[in-house]
Amino acid sequence: MIRLPLWILGALLLGGIVHLSTVLAMPRAATQDAYSRLAQLTPVNAVVPLAAPSAQNTTMPFMDPAFAVVVCRYDLSSGALKLSAPLSQAYTSVTFYTRNSVAYYAINDRAAGRRAIELDLMTPEQHAQMPEEEDVTAADRLIIESPTRRGLIVLRALAPEPNLMVMARRALAGTQCRIEPVPQ
């Protein structure tokens, strides 16, 4: 009588372990993650606009058609990255992802508080090599440390109405993503 509940409990435990290990292994085993898909479409350290999603064709899954999207695939091996993104009229956001699609930082236009989002992206080693500048305060320069040398920066601008999509794309067209070599 007690054997049946023990077998059921053992099967549930084994199923839970298999499920959890599969979920944890999938990001490493997936071959068509965001970085791999965008590697075919985007050069390194350059801003590329993504096509508007449609029912038949999307560059990335779950893209919102109300947002204009540009992507910068970065590689910090040769220096720190300088990102400058003008703000759209409605809403602008910038999200940073590691090579394995883990989001590690995000900022939007309301948090930036300026007419543009300007920041420096670097590895912790590059940040440690920076000279101390007394005249630069934390408010003047936003420095973000990337946990990996390669990753993605995704910028989104909202078009609250379909006829405003042109303005959202125009706002993102001024985005710059460039490497500044580390002084030796």
What's the SSE blueprint?
Blueprint: H1 3-29, H2 34-39, E1 47-49, E2 67-75, E3 79-86, E4 92-98, E5 103-108, H3 109-112, E6 116-122, H4 124-129, E7 143-145, E8 150-158, H5 165-173, E9 176-181
Parallel strand pairs: 6-7
Antiparallel strand pairs: 1-2, 2-8, 3-6, 3-9, 4-5, 4-8
Structure notes:
The chain has 184 residues and is of the alpha+beta class. The protein folds into 2 domains: 1-30; 34-181, Sandwich (Immunoglobulin-like). The protein is built from 5 helices and 9 strands. The strands form 2 sheets. It has a 5-stranded antiparallel β-sheet. Strands 7-6-3-9 form a 4-stranded mixed β-sheet. The longest helix is centred in the first third of the chain and has 27 residues, at 3-29. The termini are far apart.
Structural class by sheet pairing and helices? alpha+beta
Largest beta sheet: strand ordering: 1-2-8-4-5
Number of strands: 9
**What series of H and E elements makes up the topology?**
HHEEEEEHEHEEHE
CATH class of the largest domain: Mainly Beta
Helix content: 25-40%
Shape: globular
How is the CATH topology of the largest domain named? Immunoglobulin-like
The overall number of domains is 2
β-sheet strand percentage:
25-35%
- What distance lies between the first and last C-alpha atoms, to the nearest angstrom? 75 Å
Averaged pLDDT: 85
Over all CA atoms, what is the radius of gyration? 21 Å
Detail the poorly predicted runs: none
**How many strands, what sense, and barrel or not for the largest sheet?**
5 strands, antiparallel
Number of separate helices: 5
The CATH architecture assignment of the largest domain turns out to be Sandwich
